[in-house]
Amino acid sequence: MIEGLQRLGRATLFWFNRLGRATLFLLRLLGALAALGKRPGLIVKQLYSVGVLSLPIIAMSGLFVGMVLGLQGYANLVDFGATSSLGTVVALSLVRELGPVLAALLYAARAGSALTAEIGLMKVTEQLAAMQMMAVDPFARVFAPRFVAGVIAMPLLAGIFTAIGILGGYFVAVQQLGVDSGAFWSQMQAAVRLVDDVVNGVVVKSAVFGWVANWIAVFEGYDAIPTSEGISLATTRTVVNTALVVLALDFVLTAIFFGA
Amino acid sequence: MSATAPAVPNGPPDTYPLVTVRGLTFHRGDRVIFQNVDLDIRRGGITAIMGPSGAGKTTLLRLIGGQLRPEAGRIEVDGACVHELGRRELYQLRKRMSMLFQSGALFTDLSVFDNVAFPLREHTRLPENLIRTLVLMKLEAVGLRGARDLMPSELSGGMARRAALARAIALDPMMILYDEPFSGQDPITMGVLIKLIRTLNDALGLTSVIVSHDVKETASIADYIYLISDGLVVDHGAPDALERSSSAWVEQFLHALPDGPMSFHYPALPYAQDLSLE
User: Fold this and answer.
1) ipTM surpasses cut 0.85
2) How far apart are CA B88 and CA B66, in angstroms?
3) SS3 category, B138
């Protein structure tokens, strides 16, 4: 019993300690953002790594998720003769929830883990220490450009995921299952609101998820124990922690934006 | 056994030691790394810090470079107390010193050329054609002008260290800290590195600090040697003087003798007791 409590106490202290360090890290990261104004090229290079190179998995996943939504929606709506609402079902599901959430989870798996591994390896191979000894701040040169690029890329990727998902749903519903094309698009246009659904859903949610996912990814790399096992653990923690935090935050944001 | 550093000379400032360490104390957990250590690094010379693995040689370089803070004592580089400097002042000081890491620590996403150009691009506003000239000069000095377009993954260990050395001298620093520059190198590469360190030190008027446990190679170019072990400076002096030292520890270390004050065995229970024979 006492031993269990001790373990719980140790684990709690460990997590609070990490949260404190992660917060200090974020504050230093934000302090380094000003220097980035003079070096936009650093952000552009990272936008390619975390954004452009994530496009294939985002596009493919969006397409399949949209196609599945089309199939499942049709199978349920056809019993009620409501297949004309399929466009609304597909679009609202993607815009409000699946687009930002799945894009964030895929981002964590593809780009977040890569960011953690890259920074962790820079630590292991003393590249970060070398940079510091050359009087170059790794926060300004390494961490901040990656963080900012990720925060910019996330809403764009979520938007692309959502748009391709809707096209996937259209392909299955209209091209394969014979739903009327006009009904598919017009119902969608009538039901989906720009600010309430698109801005709150895709833009705000994915911006929040992007902030959190990149904070976790960059911090885990920076905080990794400089061994191969340490990097492996850090990479795993990036994916797991991002997934849990994104899902929890999604509930909170959904309650705020779409709750009764 | 302990020894104190030579007294700071009363002469013109350029004869003062570049680095003075006084009363340095540093622990890692319960383990004592340094206990009240004094030492001086003389300007313009090559000073070697030698000692067995785990003696804290690399830690000493990190303390001098301001990457670690001492628990007690004072470390001054060119008159500035390193651990009392703010980040901005520390970075200003670091622009005048370089460190050659054991691994080379080249940036793996940059070519050899861009690695050497990195500090120039970060800290100067020189036009690109002038940077190119400077980089080629540095690479020529280490014999890698022809390898400028290679990536770090395409270099051998010795080439990587030479490229890192070219990067280290890019800003013409006053001091270079070398962390185990010879470890894991074949004899030819080792000879090249020894010659390079000595030549660059003399030609560029540098002050060099070499941390190493490669006794013969380091002693061949060092002007002064500190031997550290168990948190203390065991002895110090010119290589010839240390050769004549009467200390059993120095004798064992410099001549790589298996028997001596340094025990082969890590502290443990009696062997028979560990095997449950008594």
Assistant:
1) no
2) 12
3) helix
HSE-up of residue A131 (Cα within 13 Å, Cβ side): 19
- Is residue A130 less than 8 Å (CB to CB) from chain B? yes
Confidence band for B14, pLDDT divided at 50, 70 and 90 = low
Q: Is A127 at the interface with chain B, CB within 8 A? A: yes
What are the tens digits of pLDDT across the range A153-168?
999 999 999 999 999 9
| Helix, coil or strand: residue B264 | coil
CB–CB contact A126 B103 (8 Å): yes
Per-residue pLDDT tens over the stretch A231-248: 999 999 999 999 999 999
A45 touches chain B (CB under 8 A): no
Of B215, B173, B175, B174, residue with least CA distance to B194: B215
The residue type at A62? G
Spans of all domains in chain A = 41-258
Q: Which residue has the tokens 């280490």?
A: B142
Q: What is the pTM of this model?
A: 0.85
Q: Where are the alpha helices (DSSP H) in A125-195?
A: 127-133, 138, 144-170, 181-191
Question: B80-81 and B72-77 as β-strands: parallel, antiparallel, unpaired?
Answer: antiparallel
